[in-house]
Amino acid sequence: MNRTGFLKQAGRRLLAAAGMGAAILSAVAAVNTAHALPQMNLPGINAAILSSGQAGPTPAWLAFCKQMPDECTFDPSEAAVIALDQETWRLLGDVNERVNATILPVTDQDHWGVADRWDYPDDGLGDCEDIQILKRRMLIQAGLPRRALRMTVVIDELGAGHAVLMARTDRGDYILDNKRATVLSWQETGYRYVKREGSDGKSWVWLGNQAAPLVTATK
């Protein structure tokens, strides 16, 4: 069996063992209704990241939008930021942790035989952007506005391109990342922020290569 076949077989086993679809969404619903859970401290209020003009999206994102146009729709009536309360903060953390634990990270080259492809990790395998778009779909299904959940391109601690999901909230911009189980403010990630989907249209926006201070590996 070649490497791609082995990875896909491993992903299917992982997916089946985790019962990802119904099980994770049921867990998300439980987060929304589990009033008996202990209270979680909300993060402090942090400054939102500043954008600096329009940016061109990646070709793989354009191909993804052509294949799944509903995933790239823009609804100006939606809230541009999330009102962050304890229930929503718990939801963000739960979805981030559960998806990270369920999807086996692989490169697009190993998975699909191409350099860059955006798609849902329905076979249990995916790279950084695939994992983040799954998180976004789950958060939207849980009731959060798509407009406030923005795919974002960064330069990671190794100097490589990386995709994260930015949740824009009234307490600042928070990052869901397949490299960390913890949801962090953008300032805590140690990344350099290049561009993200815009909140006021389909175009992406430049983030000016803004740097965040590096955090320890334990976070």
Automatic annotation (TrEMBL):
**Alphabetical list of Gene3D superfamilies matching this protein:** 3.10.620.30
What are the boundaries of the signal sequence? Answer: 1-29
Is Signal included in the keywords of this UniProt record? yes
- Give the protein name, as stated in the record: Transglutaminase-like cysteine peptidase
Q: Which PANTHER family match?
A: BLR5470 PROTEIN, PTHR39327
| InterPro entries given in the database record | Transglutaminase-like_Cys_pept (IPR010319)
Task: Look up the domain of life of the source.
Answer: Bacteria
The UniProt keyword set, sorted, is: Signal
Name its species.
Microvirga terrestris
